[in-house]
Amino acid sequence: MYLWLLFCVSALQYAVAAQNVTGIDGWLRYARIPNADSLRGQVPGHIVALNDSETSPVFTAGQELMSGMAGILGANADVSYSMSEKGSYRNATGTLIVGSMDQFEGASIDMGEEPELIEDGYHIAFSGSDVHIIGSNQRGALYGAFKLLAWLAQGRLPQDSYTSNPDAPIRWGNQWDNLQDGGNHGSVERGYAGDSIFFKDGGVREDLSRVPLYARLLASVGINALVVNNVNANESMVEPRIVEGLGRIADLMRPYGVRLGMSLNFATPELLGVLDTFDPFDESVIQFWQDRTDLIYSHIPDMAGYLVKANSEGQPGPLTYNRTLADGANLFARRVQPYGGVVMFRGFVYDSTSLNQTEDWRADRANAAVEFFDGLDGSFEDNVVVQIKYGPIDFQVREPASPLFAHLQNTATAIELQVTQEYLGQQCHVFYYADLWKSVLDWDMRYEEKPSLVRDIIAGRRFNQSLGGYAAVINVGLNQTWLGSHLAMSNLYLYGRMSWDPTVSGEDVIQDWTRMTFNHNPDVIQTIKEISMESWPTYENYSGNLGIQTLADITGSHYGPDPASQDGNPWGQWTRADTFSIGMDRTVFNGTGFAGQYPAIVRNKYDNISTTPDDLLLWFHHVNYTYPLKESDETVIQHFYNAHYAGAANAQTYAPRWEALKGKMNQQQYEEQLYRLIYQGGHSIVWRDTINQFYYNLSSIPDEQNRGGCGGDFPYRIEAESMELDGYNVTIAEPWNTASSGRLIAASSNDTATATATVPDSLLTSNSSTYDVAVNYFDVAIGIAHWTLYLNDRMIGEWKGDMEYRLGHAPAVAINGDSNTRITFHDVKVRSGDVLKIVGEPEREDVAAVDYISIFPPGVVD
Ligand code: GCW
């Protein structure tokens, strides 16, 4: 009876556990693998971690190995903390020993041939029935333990010894967390997964329970430091009450070998009211920073360093006092230098107020970084690393590598990547970064006509720097999935893997990740791999092509389509699109001169239109819409139309491909991701139509195939503005092209509104008796409107405008490309003459707006 009860309880636990894969464990679920039984006997069940201090990464390694082996293999492993204890275990066949090289030596354990390790590297050796995980330091030992567990979680255990060293010493995460809500974009700037896990109400959270879970994920892929606050930094960061809280955060990350870093506001002494200057040469300013740095290190002795954004986008900096950027960086570098800290000084410097598009053909934000850093190479302290965004503009869907990488031969550099998908669908569209990052990391600058890959420059190999590496803006939040969507987490995993070894294959990484995050089902692995690998070209197709940039709303959300927003403002993300032509002329001869910032071979390639690859054509050249491409027989404008139709069509396949995985993965993961893939399918059509309508309107050049939005009609649509309206008004979207045919309907008061239409014969040309019925509507953040769709008074469906709670992208504040979205009802029996009716119930600013209804046969992309 008792046993039976026990069985029921554990079966129940298993069932509950199976229902809840929230994402909180990321790829470290330690789920039981199919071949657990055969692997179990191959790993020693006795673990010796050569450090019994709970704050040490080696102690953590012991704990992880124990729980990992229990979960993955169902093994009843045990852990002790010295070799002398090991004898007390039963079934002592072999020992798994983990520790640093020093600890192995201290315990007189024969390591065999001494492995060649650099900082953070590790060696895994199989000697007889023993397994040794030897780190160059304690952090490396933990990385080795995570490596062993990753093998097991993927159902394999190599028997050859294995040595792994990181490609670069700096592998940092950046969080853009504000101390409180209501910063520029809420509590995490450009974060799409809820509030900060670190800060709340202007201070450090009491409840920091998410911090060790995050540090664990970071450590498992070799990320060794985390800057916890926004580069648009609050001056309070150095106040004693905050520093004390940062100390608590650092304590929670230390067992994972993740050191804390922090962003500083350059004007802190003045903003705090302590001094009336922040001149980096002023003795009292120097003393101020010395005192604060001493205070910080008294709480956090292993503080990784400072991150500084200066003289960019309104942030204060040394230029105010006619000091150079190097003077500014060195102010901090000298303070942290005795403590072993570094200063990550951002290369993202430009003046967002001085660029004049209409009067100056040569004005170019892309030029700014090299110009601002001109003449400074070599004047930075040794512990300064210039942190450079991958492209010269700002995390766009495609950019050439920043030329600044080729200008600093006597200064350490790091590349800045984004895991958060600021311009790339904000975790509501699938975007797997592998190939995009590779396009930059493998970019060859040909400095002095020698191989000069960006990845070799940042690793310090090309210019003999001992520092350098990687930073990525991650921006997790309190959401259980960390980033807002299950699939988005593959990018955090990828970031760790690629910053450790930039030559890894994106395909291998996504498959490894899928096995650990989902399961070993070959269909699951195959589908996630395919969708992920297609995601960049797909998104690029329906956003911005040929190097024109993302074409999102760039003055606000950076999310939905708004090609007009690029031009006519001082932000400098211009396209210079007019009625005949498009693109930034960045040539030396006639343009902004940007191409001339690259070393000669690269400069000549991109300065010359005939050798510029199509995918960066409009980045470097201004051409007519009718300009013929090299790699296809399209013109520029025809490529835009074709690519937008192709991209949106491919995005339509994601949800059905996912649905084929039903029952093959955990239900929660399945459903939450499906919701997003369906959303993406609808939003990709909004992207397609907005961009096509915009460029067709501008150029007046019709699509060769006469498709909707670019010269032809949308064959399956009933535009809402053509319906019979009661309580609805016809209005225009802002900008107009974010609505189909430019117009839509919105409730004219707070009362319920209706729109009706008779289905015309012309829409129902297929033999199918059932159709998909899609409604494009606008879901604005403030308020939750409600819609009901009827066919001949039979309800087809109802839905709410609650995406602001479900999706997490930048809140859609108006009727535009952020808020335009789609719901689709499948298998609806429709006959000509049927009456369609939409009933909208507005609430506050959510005015139950409708763009159109589309009725199309199954399988068709409308
Ligand atoms: O592109 C901009 C982002 C800002 C960000 C800035 C930066 C933190 O829109 O939100 O500010 O880049 O990288 O500093």
Automatic annotation (TrEMBL):
All copies of domain Alpha glucuronidase N-terminal, residue ranges: 26-148
Catalytic activity, EC: 3.2.1.139
The keyword Transferase is annotated on this UniProt entry: no
Coiled-coil residue windows: none
Cleaved signal peptide residues: 1-17
GO biological process, one term: xylan catabolic process
Chief site of localization: secreted
Glycosyl hydrolase family 67 C-terminal domain residues: 484-707
Family: Belongs to the glycosyl hydrolase 67 family.
Function: Alpha-glucuronidase involved in the hydrolysis of xylan, a major structural heterogeneous polysaccharide found in plant biomass representing the second most abundant polysaccharide in the biosphere, after cellulose. Releases 4-O-methylglucuronic acid from xylan.
Protein's name according to its UniProt entry: Alpha-glucuronidase
Gene: aguA
